[in-house]
């Protein structure tokens, strides 16, 4: 009880902050009402060339709540127009559409009434009958190149035309009138006709069309062209259609330089690496220790990825690896609305699933046995053995048959994913609010394996007069699962079913897994392995986790160019887990079940919170051609965690009674508390000149509690430069924008908690029931923080009119030094290890390319495509003569991701050497096998639109990189591998012939000598083709760990997601009181093509040992429905 009170007291500030945020946001919501501002705040993007006014009307109706009302005979609905607007209000769009015409519009609630301007209709007849003249002309840009498809309209009328391929046009107009000329990416221009018959019109580029903004560090929105570092962004609605278990999966291939490892195991979240490191996750400007995978798709407004330390330098050591910036929804601009978004997907088979031989039984030496291995007798040839009958629950004589050919597939169950969100939002002149409730149900393919997850979110913003505003958000998550165990070697179901048991039994007959309830299993493998159904229901690892995160910020405009912002945010969590196994458990010590057949129970609780407080002044001043902007501020970061575990010892006193009180001996109790505090001051200054040249400098100083008391301070500087050459030099008209950028930064990583502070390790019942306490680590106060020095250069180029093709390229170089290791020392010192810096240094270099294009955009059809390419590798920049590896593949300039192994001896021509027993000769020296990092990562996203239909296809994959196939390693060892079902095995088991001759050579005479690294110094050996016969079983078991076969390439191509959707017509859904309705067929993890890895999906393999008896990769298909009222 005391511990609970302590935790509540310590997190009191956090809870008060969240409570205040909730109160303010709720108060703001009560003051908000739907108003005519909906028109001003509904933002749309339209790109249309040579389309009619009617097409524009239809597009606005499909993508908003508006309905047009007009009299067709009075409006020229077939007038051709060109529009290119991005994130603009409907009012601005309509102003552009009707500019220079006699059309006016009135917005009444959700209706737009379009009509002719009555004042212009009442002009005197003399004016209406002004003499018409024929005008010809050409439209060009500032470089003298023709502008194709420019709108040329007689001002005040609907009379107009479009320029041709050479920029030429012809139009009959009233004498003395004015022409309005416009085109995508250019400023609209008024051209008086006068008495001219031929016009030369030059359009100036619209610089505002290039003004793309991104969310940068601390949640500050900045112009993308002013940044000296690489970023990528996309909208949250791109994640809302295919809603799987984890949002991170949908990021695969969407960001260049970001690698997502998607595990096939239940409950294991994808791992995200940005430029080879784990990035910081930031929500509404506040750093969080939550994983990106914890968030729900439907609450995300947009995501910006800041690549590298320069981009996130203002976050200090936590931002040294880049950051994922999440901006949550806070009401939007839709007035009052209710939205329901549900996605339901179902198992449609497996992409990869292990296959085993089904011709031979468990046992060894060709004889059936229930003890171990699957090198037993031939099945289905009439041979009879004493076997366990799971129905009668007794041993009896039975024929050895392959009745369990599909044991693993029969063990798997139907799986599905259901993800539903209901949200309510409202907006008005005083602010906006949004609240939502989400529910995820994940039914896994293994029995008793499912997850329930709830999210509650509320966020909003409130204006306090003309100068002040408050913004807040809160997210609550609850996640529970009855059993998360069951993967990997030793604990997974595949370990039992596929590797070490044979196909001579039908696993379904063992669903009744008790022979004696709560004491003894109904199972025939009684020495090592548990009944898989027993594992599913009696060997439990359950979770019940609660997480709350939120933030509250206050903004005040001191002067038009000077603003103050105060913000508090953080995370509080309570994670509860239970591990238990029944009396009668066979496999002891695997996966935490320590007491085997005696029963086991462990209960753990991990609680904690993290708080971030920051304040800063933001300034932005324009001085003639110069601009100055930046900020000055400070922050406080504090985190505390408590971990309490208690477990039984030497079994359960009462079978079936799971409680710490049921421990036979005094229970084992372990408790841990960790705290950390970092105080910071920071600032940034950006100088701009003529919106073309930008120089940014950033500095941050941290004082960390984990560093030595005499040297707690460390400083992070960074510099960034951005230049827009397209504003300086004359470029072809098909290159409207060009940017160059570069940056340099130094970032540091402070030490972990208790790396320098003495912390006791306490052990219970060491001597006759007595406990002991000791310091395991020798602590030194001269350890320096790990330091990274990073520089990067890049360029962004836009091609074609309308910027329909965009290319961005980055190169980065990151040097890491002052690395630390924990060195083991003599126990005579009274310690086990010490933390120290070493001289070894690394450098990571990489290239990132992203391409966004609209290859096709015609009437009723468009195709948008995004391609991301990246590669990065880490190399040794400096070696430590005492601690760096001593081998032939470790040197300055060598890659650090090498993998070496003691393989098998070969002759100079690469043939395997066979020893006198007919088996492969094992090498005594390690050799380089390959490298784990891929050579190239890629992602290709496609969006096709035809009228109301939308098709999305997202591909991603990797080329190169190697990993060890643990599945095939053990399948070969145990005799379960399908390749072991061959004639040699048949001859050995059925005919008694041990006639296998291994492929390779034998040594006839001579000898060989090696140096310490395994290089040949002298060789007099004479070889001959191998002709030594041996047992096939012995040969395979002795060489099952051959790295030439087991270290495989992780190359793959995957169809990650697909959706085919339809937006129901506005005229139909309006009768159902709907504003919009989208229905789509969706799929995730649909197809994979691999070079190697026959039985597992390399998507989730991070390092050389990434494949550890991986569970089958599931294909999901289903339906998405999104309705807005």
Automatic annotation (TrEMBL):
The keyword Transmembrane applies. It is a multi-pass membrane protein. One of its GO terms (cellular component) is cell outer membrane. The keyword Transport applies. Pfam families: CarbopepD_reg_2, Plug, STN. Its main location: membrane. Keywords: Cell outer membrane, Membrane, Transmembrane, Transmembrane beta strand, Transport. SMART domains: STN. PROSITE patterns: TONB_DEPENDENT_REC_3. InterPro entries: CarboxyPept-like_regulatory, Plug_dom, Plug_dom_sf, Secretin/TonB_short_N, TonB-dep_OMP_SusC/RagA, TonB-dep_OMP_SusC/RagA_CS, TonB-dep_rcpt-like. It is found in: Cell outer membrane. Belongs to the TonB-dependent receptor family. This is SusC/RagA family TonB-linked outer membrane protein.
């Amino acid at each position: 009880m005391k511990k609970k009170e302590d935790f509540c007291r310590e997190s009191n500030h956090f809870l008060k902050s969240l409570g205040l945020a909730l109160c303010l946001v709720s108060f703001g919501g009560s003051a908000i009402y739907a108003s005519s501002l909906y028109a001003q705040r509904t933002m749309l993007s339209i790109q249309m060339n040579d389309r009619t006014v009617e097409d524009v009307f239809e597009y606005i109706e499909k993508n908003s709540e508006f309905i047009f009302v007009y009299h067709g005979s009075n409006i020229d609905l077939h007038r051709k127009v060109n529009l290119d607007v991005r994130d603009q209000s409907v009012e601005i769009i309509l102003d552009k559409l009707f500019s220079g015409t006699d059309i006016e519009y009135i917005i009444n609630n959700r209706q737009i009434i379009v009509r002719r301007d009555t004042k212009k209709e009442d002009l005197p007849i003399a004016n209406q009958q002004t003499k018409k003249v024929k005008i010809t002309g050409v439209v060009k840009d500032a470089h003298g190149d023709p502008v194709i498809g420019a709108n040329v309209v007689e001002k005040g009328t609907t009379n107009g035309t479009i320029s041709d391929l050479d920029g030429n046009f012809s139009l009959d107009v009233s004498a003395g009138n004015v022409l309005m000329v416009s085109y995508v990416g250019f400023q609209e221009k008024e051209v008086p006709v006068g008495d001219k018959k031929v016009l030369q019109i030059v359009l100036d580029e619209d610089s505002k069309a290039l003004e793309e903004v991104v969310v940068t560090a601390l949640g500050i929105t900045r112009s993308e062209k002013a940044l000296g570092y690489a970023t990528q962004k996309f909208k949250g609605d791109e994640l809302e259609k295919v809603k799987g278990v984890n949002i991170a999966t949908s990021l695969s291939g969407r960001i260049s330089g970001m690698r997502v490892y998607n595990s096939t195991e239940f409950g294991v979240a994808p791992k995200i690496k940005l430029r080879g490191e784990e990035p910081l996750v930031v929500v509404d400007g506040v750093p969080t220790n939550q994983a990106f995978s914890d968030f729900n798709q439907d609450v995300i407004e947009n995501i910006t990825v800041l690549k590298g330390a320069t981009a996130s330098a203002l976050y200090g050591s936590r931002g040294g690896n880049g950051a994922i910036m999440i901006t949550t929804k806070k009401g939007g601009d839709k007035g009052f609305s209710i939205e329901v978004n549900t996605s339901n997907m179902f198992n449609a088979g497996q992409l990869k699933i292990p296959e085993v031989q089904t011709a031979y039984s468990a046992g060894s030496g060709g004889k059936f046995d229930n003890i171990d291995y699957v090198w037993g007798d031939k099945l289905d040839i009439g041979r009879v053995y004493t076997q366990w009958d799971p129905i009668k629950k007794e041993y009896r004589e039975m024929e050895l048959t392959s009745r369990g050919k599909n044991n693993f597939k029969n063990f798997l169950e139907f799986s599905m994913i259901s993800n539903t969100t209901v949200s309510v939002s409202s907006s008005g002149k005083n602010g906006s609010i949004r609240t939502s409730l989400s529910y995820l149900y994940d039914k896994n393919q293994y029995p008793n394996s499912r997850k329930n997850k709830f999210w509650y979110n509320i966020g909003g913003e409130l204006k306090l007069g003309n100068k002040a505003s408050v913004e807040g958000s809160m997210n609550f998550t609850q996640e529970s699962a009855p059993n998360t165990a069951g993967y990997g070697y030793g604990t997974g179901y595949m370990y039992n079913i596929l590797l070490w048991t044979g196909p001579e039994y039908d696993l379904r007959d063992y669903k009744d897994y008790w022979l004696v309830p709560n004491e003894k299993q109904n199972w025939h493998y009684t020495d090592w392995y548990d009944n898989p159904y027993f594992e599913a229901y009696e060997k439990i690892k359950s979770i019940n986790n609660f997480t709350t995160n939120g933030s509250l910020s206050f903004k005040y405009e001191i002067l038009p160019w000077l603003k103050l912002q105060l913000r508090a945010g953080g995370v509080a969590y309570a994670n509860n887990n239970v591990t238990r196994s029944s009396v009668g458990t066979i496999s002891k010590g695997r996966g935490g079940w320590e007491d085997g057949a005696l029963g086991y129970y462990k209960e753990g609780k991990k609680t904690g919170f993290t708080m971030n407080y920051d304040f800063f002044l933001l300034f932005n001043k324009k001085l003639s051609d110069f601009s100055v902007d930046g900020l000055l501020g400070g922050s406080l970061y504090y985190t505390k965690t408590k971990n309490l575990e208690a477990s039984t010892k030497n079994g359960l006193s009462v079978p079936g009674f799971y409680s710490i009180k049921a421990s036979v001996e005094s229970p084992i109790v372990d408790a841990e508390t960790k705290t950390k505090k970092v105080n910071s001051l920071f600032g940034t200054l950006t100088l701009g000149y003529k919106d073309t040249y930008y120089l940014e400098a950033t500095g941050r100083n941290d004082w960390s509690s984990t560093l030595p008391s005499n040297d707690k301070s460390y400083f992070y500087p960074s510099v960034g430069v951005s230049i827009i050459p397209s504003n300086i030099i004359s470029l072809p008209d098909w290159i409207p924008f060009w940017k160059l950028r570069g940056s340099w930064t130094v970032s540091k990583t402070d030490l972990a908690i208790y790396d320098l502070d003495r912390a006791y390790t306490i052990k219970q019942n060491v001597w006759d029931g007595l406990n002991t306490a000791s310091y395991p680590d020798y602590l030194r106060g001269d350890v320096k923080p790990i330091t990274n020095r990073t520089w990067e250069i890049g360029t962004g180029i836009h091609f074609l009119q309308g910027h329909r093709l965009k290319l961005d390229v980055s190169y980065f170089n990151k040097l890491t030094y002052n690395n630390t290791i924990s060195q083991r020392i003599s126990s005579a010192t009274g310690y086990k290890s010490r933390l120290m810096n070493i001289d070894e240094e690394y450098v990571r270099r990489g290239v990132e390319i992203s391409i966004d294009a609209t290859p096709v955009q015609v009437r009723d059809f468009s195709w948008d495509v995004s391609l991301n390419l990246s590669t990065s590798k880490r190399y040794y920049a400096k070696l430590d003569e005492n601690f760096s590896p001593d081998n032939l593949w470790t040197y300055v300039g060598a890659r650090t991701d090498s993998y070496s192994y003691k393989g098998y001896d070969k002759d100079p021509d690469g043939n395997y050497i066979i020893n006198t027993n007919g088996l492969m000769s094992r090498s005594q020296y390690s050799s380089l096998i390959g490298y784990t990092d891929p050579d190239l990562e890629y992602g290709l996203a496609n969006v096709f639109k035809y009228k109301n239909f939308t098709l999305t296809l997202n591909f991603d994959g990797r080329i190169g990189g190697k990993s060890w196939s643990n599945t095939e390693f053990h399948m070969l060892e145990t005799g379960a591998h399908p390749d072991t079902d061959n004639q040699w095995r048949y001859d050995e088991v059925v005919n008694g012939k041990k006639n296998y001759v291994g492929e390779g050579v034998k040594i006839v005479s001579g000898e060989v000598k090696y140096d310490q690294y395994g290089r040949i110094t002298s060789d007099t050996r004479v070889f001959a083709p191998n002709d030594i016969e041996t047992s096939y079983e012995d040969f395979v078991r002795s060489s099952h760990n051959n790295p030439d076969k087991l270290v495989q390439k992780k190359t793959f191509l995957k169809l990650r997601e697909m959706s085919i959707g339809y937006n129901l017509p506005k005229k139909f859904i309006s009768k159902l009181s709907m504003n919009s309705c989208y229905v789509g067929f969706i799929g995730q993890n649909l197809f994979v093509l691999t070079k190697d890895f026959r039985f597992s999906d390399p998507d989730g393999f991070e390092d050389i040992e990434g494949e550890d008896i991986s569970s089958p990769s599931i294909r999901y298909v289903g339906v998405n429905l999104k309705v807005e009222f």
